[in-house]
Amino acid sequence: MARIKPQALLLQSKKKKGPTRISVTTIIFCNLVVVLVVFSLFATYRQWSNRSRNQFHVGGSNAEEHDGFVDSKRFDLPGYAILNTSKGYITVELNKDGSPEIVDKFLDLCQKGHFKGMPFHHVIKNYVIQGGHSQGIGATEDWTSKGKPHGQLPLSPKHEAFMLGTLKSKQDGKKFELFITTAPIPDLNDKLIVFGRVIKGEDVVQEIEEVDTDEHYRPKSPIGIINVTLKPEA
What three-state secondary structure class fits 76? Predict the structure, then answer.
């Protein structure tokens, strides 16, 4: 049997390739790549999930924020008005919940100085005091022509004495009339919107009620509102 020379053995060993060895650095690098890919996929999923959830609730959230803003705004509105009249001060508590639109209109006119110098142009004893810039008899003439109430009609708590109201008929700022009742008047339930009540200064209202008037219930001497001050608390 022929013997293989050492040179031939060396050549044969070179031709045979053993298994490739992977370095530790390569393994660590591959693991890092896998971790980064998994983390990226997880972060993308979280972002997509949160975005979908926010879009789903956006309608309800906006509605709640709007309602909260409106409630906060209404809560921040002044709740009291002090009428400085030529006979003294009358403090009125405004009914923001019961008549919000009328109260808003009243507050807006107060800020514009609408009631500054407003006269009480009709005073009906044991009935009502009417203030405004209109000099026509209008509503009071119609009410008095039908006779004053005699306690036979059903009473409404809104139309007791010392209530502040205005006409139910649509009116612009120039025709915004003020009425302060001086007695329960059930026949005005369909004519007045009550938006406040006198809590201080009832004696001033009664003093205005006692002024001398002509046959059309117009005061013989000028009497009216000097200005109006708004307060958050009484």
Answer: helix
What pLDDT is recorded for position 136?
57
Cβ neighbours around 225 below 10 Å, total: 18
Measured distance CA(17)–CA(1) in Å, rounded? 27
**pLDDT digit string, tens, across residues 159-218:** 689 999 998 876 655 678 999 999 988 776 677 889 999 999 999 999 999 999 999 899
Q: Which long-range contacts (CB under 8 A, 24 or more apart) does 145-153 make?
A: 146/187, 148/185, 149/184, 149/185, 149/186, 149/187, 151/184, 153/186, 153/187
Residue that has been written with the tokens 């070179």 in this structure: 14
Dihedrals φ, ψ of 227, to 5°? -165, 170
From 90, 191, 176, 92, select the one nearest 140 (Cα to Cα).
191
HSE (side-chain half, CA atoms, 13 Å) at 63: 4
Instruction: Give the per-residue pLDDT at 152.
Output: 45
pTM comes to 0.64
Distance CA 109, CA 17 (A): 100
Q: How far apart are CA 192 and CA 95, in angstroms?
A: 14
CB proximity list for 78: less than 8 A, separation 6 or greater: 94, 107, 230, 231, 232
Q: What Rg value do the Cα atoms of the chain yield, rounded?
A: 42
pLDDT tens, position by position, 114-126: 999 999 999 999 9
Measuring CA to CA, how many Å separate 154 from each of 28, 110, 124, 185, 197? 92, 33, 21, 10, 20
